Amino acid sequence: MNDRIHNFSAGPSALPTAVMQEMQEDLLSYRGSGMSVMEMSHRGDLFMGIIDEARTRIKRLYGLSDAYEVLFVHGGASLQFAMVPMNFIGEGQTAEYIETGTWSTKAIAEARIQNKGVRVAASSGDQDFTCIPEVKGLSAEAPFVHITTNNTVRGTQWHDLPDTGGVPLIADMSSDILSRPLDTRPFGMIYGGAQKNMGPSGTAVVILRKDMVEKIPHNLPTMLSYRTYVEKESMFNTPATFPIYAISLVTKWLEETVGGLAAMEAVNTRKAEALYALMDEDDFYCGTAAKESRSLMNATFRLRNRELEPLFIEKSLECGLAGLKGHKSVGGIRASIYNAVSEASVEALCTFMDDFRRTNR
Amino acid sequence: MNDRIHNFSAGPSALPTAVMQEMQEDLLSYRGSGMSVMEMSHRGDLFMGIIDEARTRIKRLYGLSDAYEVLFVHGGASLQFAMVPMNFIGEGQTAEYIETGTWSTKAIAEARIQNKGVRVAASSGDQDFTCIPEVKGLSAEAPFVHITTNNTVRGTQWHDLPDTGGVPLIADMSSDILSRPLDTRPFGMIYGGAQKNMGPSGTAVVILRKDMVEKIPHNLPTMLSYRTYVEKESMFNTPATFPIYAISLVTKWLEETVGGLAAMEAVNTRKAEALYALMDEDDFYCGTAAKESRSLMNATFRLRNRELEPLFIEKSLECGLAGLKGHKSVGGIRASIYNAVSEASVEALCTFMDDFRRTNR
């Protein structure tokens, strides 16, 4: 597809072109049914097959045991920020949150709005969230420890999970879900908005360990209780059918074209290393994250001469590279290189960065 | 499109074929941008244009004054069932709900789960919800009166709004939103899941009168407060971008191809009258809703000989007519004839029903 742009958007973001082509082909008549996936009953056999495929492929990709449920929940990650404390911080309990920037801060705020017991057990706020903090002294009594595995704004990522001594980890993985293999056993819950590594926005994927369900109070509004999604298999009401369809295709692509999460991680590592290596050649570009905390998903950097940044963005667009502007809260440049951003796109970016440096040194 | 089926699904349901074709054409590169609407930042100019178009067209179709905001909220109508009492029933207040079947009953249940003051001011439950009940004695002190304008399961619809004496009406219009012109002035809020008359599932449209915002408590979880959606123009987090794009195209189709809501109502009336007229010719088919409460959106009926119903469904599918099975809670037949179901589709259904009657009399 010659007319496809190199898309480095932080989210919603690039989807695999092959997936987009399959969606396009079937858009008016899914598998000869005479209707689009958008137009069919969520309780019919066709869509039940689709949601089941999405669920099964996610389970298989992560090697999840039967102890886990895969749910499709409304509202993106931001609604989960509110639902997690509502469902899992009981009377008198204090949950542990690790603060690593914008999204973790929002998660903490939503627990506090509900007057729930919350302790910020570690924070890299004093280092401007440019690294993942050291974690020690976690309480063994906490109902969970909450982390944000990848931080899109500052370009940091957890590379080793904190030892919680058996307390369930709950992780917002919106921006690195399905990007690498994972030992899922420490996790009570994993959640993520679909719109970075999985599909279009409109649904969150929630991976929930079944023993967590027992802790959910019985008096929550139906749509705000994870128990509802478990008991009704994410079909208490109409789920976001088209985004779930896209997830089924993206996870199929991950399994059948990429070859699973280890293979995906290898590709993601090559992409990130190419970019960081170029950045580290001299000080024309300056990475903003501490090296040991650098994200494989969002490479954030400044130009030594910040006045050149608007020109960098302008020229990159002219070269067919989109979405490189940094988050408005921090400025600078951000290249989001999620699963579906190809090595060819990263190569094009590296070539552009190299040229831009030579021209503007 | 010869291979498109006649789709009578109750929701998700048929979308205009012309809209589907435009989506298909632009799926990999929206207006030459080199990316799909699914892949672009919700804060970029392109998507901002799309959401603004959807908002503006809804406003224009209903002739809404500046006193109203159009919002795109997560979670479908079912989450609004919980958010409405959370936002609008204050301490010591009692809201009035009119009970007209399945969906209104769920709305009432969600208010009760929160221990909110709720009174069922009228119900057609003693008539098996086959009609819209007479409403009198509404309290002038209530924060709102809640109705469900169209009832998909029993095939009933409000044709005259109740006189609330100035108390704001809040209406779940999931299944007849944008199907006819409306005097919106009595409404404090109108809401509806997208997946019947507007687009694919994954978002709800909420039309909120601005004076309602002042009543919203300030301590709600951010994503559960309508104030957030007003203040952040439905962009506190990533909205369901692709469903909103579809809504922008469907409302464009309503304005530019159909010619507005009065024209749409004329078409919808012709479709419903054709079906009901055929049904009323003799007692082979028996409409289940009281005549004065019949829905223009969902025509529900039984066969006099109920044993023939499975054969009716089987044969209809063979004739390219899909989605005619009644809701599982009541059985029978249901033809959902929302905006995008064409007169040609209804004609095909009438021909089939006539033939089936002749063959199986």
Automatic annotation (TrEMBL), chains A, B:
GO terms, molecular function: O-phospho-L-serine:2-oxoglutarate aminotransferase activity; pyridoxal phosphate binding
Cofactor: pyridoxal 5'-phosphate
PROSITE patterns from the UniProt entry: AA_TRANSFER_CLASS_5 (PS00595)
Keyword Amino-acid biosynthesis part of the UniProt annotation: yes
Keyword Amino-acid biosynthesis in record: yes
Keyword tags: Amino-acid biosynthesis, Aminotransferase, Cytoplasm, Pyridoxal phosphate, Pyridoxine biosynthesis, Serine biosynthesis, Transferase
One GO biological process term: pyridoxine biosynthetic process
EC numbers: 2.6.1.52
Residues that, per the record, bind L-glutamate: 43
One Pfam assignment: Aminotran_5
Pathway(s) where this gene product acts: Amino-acid biosynthesis; L-serine biosynthesis; L-serine from 3-phospho-D-glycerate: step 2/3; Cofactor biosynthesis; pyridoxine 5'-phosphate biosynthesis; pyridoxine 5'-phosphate from D-erythrose 4-phosphate: step 3/5
GO cellular component entries: cytoplasm
Primary subcellular site in the record, as a coarse category: cytoplasm
Catalytic activity: 4-(phosphooxy)-L-threonine + 2-oxoglutarate = (R)-3-hydroxy-2-oxo-4-phosphooxybutanoate + L-glutamate; O-phospho-L-serine + 2-oxoglutarate = 3-phosphooxypyruvate + L-glutamate
Residues reported in the UniProt entry to bind pyridoxal 5'-phosphate: 77-78, 103, 152, 172, 195, 237-238
Entry's cofactor comment: Binds 1 pyridoxal phosphate per subunit.
Subunit (UniProt): Homodimer.
UniProt xrefs under HAMAP family: SerC_aminotrans_5
Purpose of the protein: Catalyzes the reversible conversion of 3-phosphohydroxypyruvate to phosphoserine and of 3-hydroxy-2-oxo-4-phosphonooxybutanoate to phosphohydroxythreonine.
Similarity comment: Belongs to the class-V pyridoxal-phosphate-dependent aminotransferase family. SerC subfamily.
Protein name: Phosphoserine aminotransferase
Organism: Desulfoluna spongiiphila
Gene encoding the protein: serC
